[in-house]
Amino acid sequence: MQKLHQILTSRRSEILHTWTSGVRVLTAETPISTVELLDHVPRFLDELTESLASAEQGPPSPQERSSTAANHGVQRFRLGFDLDAVVREYGMLHRCVLDVAYRDEVAISREEHHVIVEAIYTGIADAVTQYTRQRDAELHRQAEEHFAFVAHELRNPLSSARLALGRLVSKGLLQPGPLSDLLARGLERMKTLIENTLSLSIASSGADLRLQPVRVSALLADAIEESNAAASDKAIRIQVEPLSEDIELNIDPRLMHSALTNIISNAVKFTHRGGVVTVRSRCEADGVRLDVQDGCGGLPDGASERMFAPFVQFGEDRTGYGLGLAIARQAVQAHGGSIRVHNHPGNGCTLSIELPIGCKRA
User: Alpha-carbon distance 182 to 66, whole Å?
Assistant: First the structure.
């Protein structure tokens, strides 16, 4: 009497034909070619047959993970299959295998049944895992695209409002005072939020970087300039440790400017009144390191692990949205780098950007 794996080998074409007919009923709303429908299923059936043949040599070993079912899940998502249809495909294959065995009166041993069930369940798990990963990534991409679109469309009317406010004040049509100051601060916060949203969308979308040579001195000067007003209000001094020679980096200036601006702004925000924020840069063997040291007095326990998460804020000052460091990390990671925090209890902390970019003397 033939073994089950031999029956599956000799009846392979019949099993695939029956499976195809059954699955077409399940996926009637997704018309595709037979080649696309079969996809990785023939290979999956072959792997199942090989596992059954191996089981004759001894007790079945745990089912090895295969990329076949995982790739099948990815393909099904791209074709627009529902997730339940993907699961039912494997149930249909299970049924086809058993129908062939019963029709040929092949007794399925306990070991063979174990192999079949293990293969089907593992296939379902791998296919569903990759399907959901693809789906979640697409939903994330669409959300980022939507936020970026909304933020971009808000820039023009906001710029017009800021320009109009400036002209009203300059022409004396709006007297300086608490109300005009409140309006100006509100417009400035809206500008910051919109720019941060765009930077976060660009950094997390995986879009190609627009690389160009930028001097570190110019990069730091631009980022520091945006925090000078806030630093002056708190009598904070932002000092830059002098470079022995300037460094030129091949970076995306939009993203790295956003990263440094957010880090320096964060340092000023949490440094105690009258304190110092120190900015330094240096070449290292494996790239470039940029440090921003604040005078916040040190981080609370567990803060260093959570401070880069979006919307997380520490301290009493809750102005802003807790997006700055999340944006900085995304921007740095987009360059293949990393950002770390070093806590100095009782003094402050240092945020370090490490970029795997070779130094070029400017």
Answer: 61
